[in-house]
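Memo to structure team: turn this sequence into structure tokens by end of day. - J.P.
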Amino acid sequence: MDAEIVNIVTRMLWTATLLSAPILIVSLVVGTVIGLFQAVVQVQEPTLTFVPKVAAIGVTIALTGGWMMSTMTDYFGELMAMAPDLIRL
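Reply from structure team:
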């Protein structure tokens, strides 16, 4: 029973990492590029990074949303398939 719970939690954390990775990587890259641009032109406006990051994250979600949804659906299906074995009266 304990090994099954550890397996479920490990799979959950791995799935969460996979789902958040594209958004975090795109946000990091866009923030770094805009930060470098701000350093070069010496414009220190903190709101300048907001709109490009939101736009890049929106595009990333639009491009990877189907994959994200299928990954979550597969994980949920695995959990529901394991549920009868995990529930003991």
